[in-house]
Specification:
The complex is a heterodimer of chains A (280) and B (321).
Chain A: H1 2-34, H2 39-45, H3 61-69, H4 72-103, H5 109-121, H6 124-137, H7 144-148, H8 155-166, H9 170-178, H10 183-191, H11 196-212, H12 215-220, H13 244-279
Chain B: H1 2-17, H2 20-25, H3 30-65, H4 86-93, H5 95-125, H6 133-141, H7 148-158, H8 166-173, H9 188-212, H10 217-225, H11 230-241, H12 243-258, H13 262-267, H14 279-289, H15 293-320
Helix pairs in contact in B: 1-3, 3-15, 4-15, 5-9, 5-12, 6-9, 9-12, 12-15, 14-15
Classes of the chains: A mainly alpha (280), B mainly alpha (321).
């Protein structure tokens, strides 16, 4: 009796897991498959399972017309450069502050820590207009700098690094001090290289957040020169008719880079997210 | 900005010279403490300066502007001046603000409990070592990886009000008639909640899963020996030991849901009939589109105090138990 039920269990579980998986993955599958179909077919396939099947007149023509309709590669380049710069420098400076707060003793540390926690509560959107005014006074509008610099430091990531470094063994640092290493060197040579899971987490979260960011670039770009990919979506809309095929193709092209980055680093990322609730 | 870095230099110089602060803690490691303070300010300053200039300063400006009639483009006939508590009075009198606060609370009440319950159930169900379980976890997490703009495209297509939307064509083929979803004042906020739940559940599932895997397996084994049922184990072992994790999820999710903005911005722009107008969206609308920076700043201040209170209450409830 016991044996049969435990033999049958995995199959039932797999069916259940797959059914739940469908809820999350189906919309993504749907738009990927549909992006290869002509618009008429997308509409006619819509109400049945056929929407998920790659059949009929499949082509990349939706992708080509998106690239022709908008200056796709320019927006892609702007998004890519600003995102990569933000990821590299943002991760580094947030880690540097997190290390200082988590491992070093100095006057004012408590104050800075409570400031970080208070800052985490303020929604960026609530102060974004004043931030734009500051960027305006610093004469930063319509530059690559304005897409990168204001978003580099982020209290939540500082806090992630802080709780990570706080949990690192102090003996490691003391040993390095005895060997004559400075505290700056301990960060660059020992602590930062030992922090790969948190680095992966912050890097991926920064990447996803920056890559999809819409509001800030809209506020600080006045000309077309530094517009980013999310901003370009509007050019796909006409008042008369919704070209779903093109919109889906655009969606797929926007998603591919994040999926690649995520799949490359998912293991340390998932591990480190799983730890946040335990420490928090 | 210069002033601030100057202050940091001053502070670090002070500690290099050997102030009494450095020596007071541990006499033997005096040099070490000085080195630590210097390194801390040196390594910390880039992030600190940027947080000061682009987060703290805008917030301080908000507090200041909230007592003025500051406009994005100041009208010549209406020069910048102090208006005292006028913006705050206006805030509590206008129906629009009340609507925005109510909508945001409604949204939080729909989203937070749903995510907490569903993500816990999901985490418990994937907390095993069946072959391929990692792939399922990854799939449940996947909406988190997709940019909100693409998530918006997906749900906009699902909830499309005309007959070319996914839900409508399914409903019509079943003979149930169509709805206008995001254009329907009664349904719009629920639609946005469904979308948020779908997008966020995977992240919270992973966090709760982390908490679950932290529970020592021996406890379950001992309970099995004592003849406890699955349900009893869940009530007496899993939930109490998961409390910290669940509390973390509760607080972060509550704050995140009160900050509702992007979904509204891309899907409904606050409509129909202001039924999806959220606090942060109203702040943006007032400050940017209507150019009333002073009034918008007052909202930001009230919102900040509100969120601060809620998280303090939740924290307090947690420590009291």
């Amino acid at each position: 009796m016991r044996n049969t039920s435990s033999n049958r269990l995995p199959l039932i579980m797999y069916i259940l897991y797959s059914a739940i998986a469908l809820i999350f993955i189906a919309p993504l599958l749907y738009i990927s498959v549909s992006s290869l179909k002509p618009d008429l077919q997308i509409v006619s396939d819509m109400s049945s399972i056929k929407g998920f099947l790659p059949y009929g007149d499949l082509s990349l023509s939706n992708y080509l017309s998106v690239i022709q309709k908008m200056d796709f590669f320019k927006y892609f380049r702007n998004s890519a450069i600003s995102t990569i710069l933000t990821v590299i420098f943002g991760t580094l400076i947030n880690a540097m502050l997190g290390y200082s707060l988590g491992m070093l003793e100095f006057k004012g540390k408590k104050l800075i820590l409570s400031l970080m926690i208070a800052m985490m509560i303020i929604p960026t959107e609530a102060v974004i207009i004043n931030r734009m005014l500051i960027a305006f006074h610093l004469k930063m509008l319509d530059t690559m700098t304005v897409l990168v610099v204001p978003a580099l430091a982020y209290p939540m990531y500082v806090f992630l690094f802080y709780s990570h470094f706080k949990g690192m063994p102090k003996e490691l640092m003391q040993a390095a001090v005895i060997d004559g290493a400075s505290y700056e060197m301990i960060f660059t040579r020992i602590m930062f290289p030992l922090s790969q899971p948190v680095i992966a987490t912050v890097a991926i979260m920064t990447f996803i957040r920056r890559w999809g960011e819409l509001l800030w670039p809209t506020l600080v770009t006045r000309t077309d020169r530094f517009r980013t990919l999310p901003q370009a979506m509007r050019s796909l809309f006409t008042n008369s008719y919704v070209y779903w095929g093109e919109i889906f193709a655009y969606g797929v092209m926007v998603t591919i880079p994040t999926v690649i980055i995520f799949l490359l680093f998912q293991k340390p990322f998932i591990q480190s997210i799983a730890m946040t609730g335990i420490k928090g | 900005m210069e002033l601030h870095s100057e202050a940091i230099k001053m502070k670090s110089r002070k500690s290099v010279i050997g102030s009494r602060y450095a020596t007071s803690t541990r006499f033997t490691s005096r040099n070490s403490n000085q080195g630590q303070a210097r390194a801390a300010w040196l390594l910390g300053s880039p992030a600190l300066i940027l947080i000061f200039v682009f987060m703290l300063l805008p917030f301080i400006m908000s507090i200041g502007f909230s007592f003025t009639n500051k406009m994005l483009v100041q009208n010549i006939n209406n020069p910048l001046r102090w208006t005292g508590f006028y913006n705050y009075q206006k805030l509590f009198q206008q129906k629009e603000t009340l609507t925005a606060f109510l909508n945001t609370f409604k949204y939080a009440l729909m989203v937070v409990p749903s995510i907490l319950i569903l993500a816990t159930l999901l985490a418990i169900s994937v907390n095993n070592r069946i072959k391929g379980i990692a792939v399922f976890r990854l799939i449940y997490f996947s909406p988190q990886v997709v940019s909100t703009i693409v998530v918006a495209i997906i749900w906009w297509f699902i909830f499309s009000p005309s007959s070319d939307g996914l839900l409508n064509s399914i409903l019509e083929s079943l003979g149930l008639g169509s709805r206008t979803w995001l254009k329907d004042p009664k349904l719009a906020l629920t639609c946005i909640s469904v979308m948020s739940i779908w997008q966020d559940i995977g992240m919270q599932m992973i966090i709760i899963l982390g908490g679950l895997q932290f529970i020592p397996q021996e406890l379950y084994e001992a309970a099995t020996v004592d003849g406890c049922t699955r349900f009893q184990k869940m009530i007496h072992i899993t939930l109490p030991l998961l409390k910290n994790t669940l509390n973390f999820v509760l607080i972060t999710m509550t704050i995140a849901s009160l900050k509702l903005f992007t979904q509204v911005y891309v899907l409904t722009e606050g409509g129909p009939q202001n039924k999806t107008l959220s606090i942060v969206y109203l702040m943006y609308l007032t400050g940017f589109t209507r150019s009333q920076v002073g009034y918008s700043s007052a909202m930001a201040v009230v919102f900040f105090i509100l969120v601060l209170c809620i998280s303090m209450i939740q924290n307090k409830l947690n420590t009291e138990d």
